[in-house]
Amino acid sequence: MKILIVEDEKSLAELVADRLRKEKYTVDISFDGDEGLYNALMDVYDLILLDIMLPGVDGIEILKKIKKNNIKSKVIMITAKSQLNDKLLGFNEGAIDYISKPFHIDEVVARVNAQLRINKNIIEFGDLILDLETSDIINKNNGESINIINKEFQLLEYFMSNPNRILSKDLIYDKVWGLDNDLLSNNLEAYLSFIRKKLKLINSSVQIKSLRNLGYRMEYKDEGTK
Known about the structure:
With 226 residues, this protein is an alpha/beta fold. The chain has helices at residues 10-22, 33-40, 59-68, 84-92, 105-116, 150-161, 169-177, 185-201; strands spanning 2-6, 26-30, 47-50, 74-79, 97-100, 122-125, 128-131, 136-139, 145-147, 206-211, 215-220. It has a 5-stranded parallel sheet with strand order 2-1-3-4-5, sandwiched between helices.
């Protein structure tokens, strides 16, 4: 899952980002409101950690733009402003949670996990289970499993969170590798090849199909149906 941090205190933003990456999230950082707004409107993030007091566009204006453009990202406000009116303003504009500075890093992690992994440490599609804690993929029909790590894990998590949806290469690059990537097309194909081999090893009927000039789509072919 992918998170955007919009925070002008660089050391704080990098501290939070490093901790969230250890939780297996993919994290991008914007250090001002203008860049934060631009990145937020790309609609590639599952969650945005958003400061209110920012250089350029402020956090409340970013919230308004997110709401106006029907961006699906969840937003948690992180700010030194802790008065009730500030909180209510954030909630009214679409924020789902609010953390006041100073905070403990574990609180941020707990609130992010609560929003993105509420009582759910697995993702399921077809006969396939992805365990978000152990990084194991399991065929629930036969119990066979194999471990999947790093970019393979992130790619499979993204596909399983968007089954039957056509995902373009650019969208996959932005979602899994981040906005500043120099990934070559054949590298993506290599990672997908590794995933396909592992799905075959556990005899899963889940497939990642290549669609010419469009991208890729995860599908499930139930062998028990015609």
